[in-house]
Amino acid sequence: MKFFLSVLLMVSSLQAIAAIDVYEFESPEQEQRYRHLIEELRCPKCQNQNLAGSDAGVATDLKNRTFELLQQGKSDEEIRGYLVDRYGDFITYKPPVRGSTLLLWAGPFTLLLVVAVVIIWRVRRRPTEHSVAMSVEEQVRLTRILNDDLSSKG
Amino acid sequence: MKKPLRIALYAVPLLLFVGLAVLLGSRLGADPGVLPSARLGQPMPAFSLSSLTEPDRLLSADDLKGHVTVLNVWATWCISCQVEHPVLMEMARQGVRIVGVNYKDIPEAAVKYLELHGNPFQFTVVDDSGNLGIDLGVYGAPETYLLDREGNIRYRLVGVLDLQKWEADLKPRFEALQAGKSLPEETE
Q1: In chain A, which residue's Cα lies nearest the Cα of B16?
Q2: DSSP code of residue B130
Q3: pLDDT at A125
Q4: CA distances, A38 to each of A59, A82, A83, B84 (Å)
Q5: Taking 80 as the threshold, does the pLDDT of residue B183 lie above it?
Q6: Which residues of B touch A118 (CB under 8 A)?
Q7: Interface check B128 vs A, CB under 8 A
Q8: Which of B130, B134, B188 sits opposite A100 (nearest CB)?
Q9: Residues B89/B118, Cβ–Cβ less than 8 Å
Q10: A16: pLDDT confidence band, cut at 50, 70 and 90?
Q11: Is the pLDDT of residue B113 over 80?
Q12: Which of B131, B16, B117 is nearest to B76 (CA)?
């Protein structure tokens, strides 16, 4: 009976361990870094999900690997590099700046600059285009018309 | 407004549009799920894993050297792998050296599977943890790699390998490597 009980206890405790599959972090900072990394890293199987948001098998594996690498004392940069070596730039939502990614990084700013230049240029031109100075004759005529108008009413 | 400026005002958006259209059009019809391999041109990652059919035998990347090899990542849980299995059998019949990587599978189930459907593999590496998969950059079985004699990864095909892909994509490269000819450089 004692034997049976101890076996039962052992089995039940094993199940308790199996139910907890969360990571045990060494420090809150490490957990913070982990959360940050899996937010920034992209699931290679899914089109638009990060590792944090994906339940795909490979995402789980990569989350485990990220955790293991953190435990080994690797820096964020090293972990990022480790995964980019294997999965390419696709794996990160922050690809490094280089020739093939230049359009991605510089494109929006270039577009903004072009639009800004066009707008500034157009706004500056407008006054000179529309304000035409009156000649002396026109000034005199305008005053006369205005005065006539006032006197006829008054 | 001066004439050249007026032309520029219309030409710039037009050029931007054409540029964007070409850029986006070049990806039209391509499967966005297919990623370029980051491992092209690099040696097969090191591993030390047991053989599926001879569990006592340890296999390493050195076992892949010396021959032009097709490396196929498969599993019994992967339906697409069952679809492509007859193609692998046909390739083996043609004398292609195929090595299997049994990816995150139950070895007993995998052995049974090969008994049932036939075994096209020279040998099969058991990657039950998926570690070799991560080193290779596998993101979904089946994946098929082409290795040259020196054990460098020269080509990768993601998804079902059908006869058409074998004839059009893989076979010419396989034969070129066998003849010692250089492949056109695979780029991203």
Answers
A1: A111
A2: S
A3: 78
A4: 9, 14, 12, 33
A5: no
A6: 9, 12
A7: no
A8: B188
A9: yes
A10: very low
A11: yes
A12: B117
Q: What is the token pair recorded at B84?
A: 């492509």
Can you list the pairs that A115-118 forms with residues at least 24 positions away whose Cβ atoms lie under 8 Å? A118/B9, A118/B12
Q: What residues pair up with B70 in beta bridges, in sequence order?
A: B98, B146
Looking at the partner chain, which of B33, B38, B139 has a beta carbon nearest the beta carbon of A58? Answer: B139
Q: What pTM, to 2 d.p., does this model score?
A: 0.76
> Is B133 at the interface with chain A, CB within 8 A?
yes
Confidence of residue A19 (pLDDT cuts 50, 70, 90): very low
* CB-based contact, B95 to chain A, within 8 Å: no
Asked if A93 and A42 count as a contact pair (C-beta separation under 8 A), the reply is yes
Instruction: Say whether B138 and A58 touch across the interface (CB within 8 A).
Output: yes
Q: Which residues contact A20 (CB under 8 A, 6 or more apart)?
A: none
Asked if A86 lies within 8 A of B136 by C-beta distance, the reply is yes
Q: Does B59 touch chain A (CB under 8 A)?
A: no
Identify which of A98, A93, A71 has the alpha carbon closest to the alpha carbon of residue A80: A93
Q: pLDDT at residue B176 above 80? A: yes
What is the percent of chain A where pLDDT is above 90? 44
Closest Cβ opposite residue A88 in set B32, B38, B133:
B38
Work out the percent of chain B whose per-residue pLDDT is above 90: 78
Selecting from A45, A85, A100 the residue whose C-beta is nearest the C-beta of B140 gives A45
The helix or strand, by DSSP H or E, that contains position B154, with its residue range, turns out to be strand B153-158
Rounded distance between C-alpha atoms, residue B128 and residue B55, angstroms: 13
How many C-beta atoms surround the C-beta of residue B61 within 10 A?
A: 16
- Alpha-carbon distance of B134 to B136, in angstroms, equals 5
**Residues pairing with A50 in the sheet:** A42
One-letter amino acid at B77 equals: W
Residues 6+ apart with CB under 8 A from B104: A57, B75, B77, B127, B128, B129, B130, B133
What's the token pair of residue B144? 């098929």
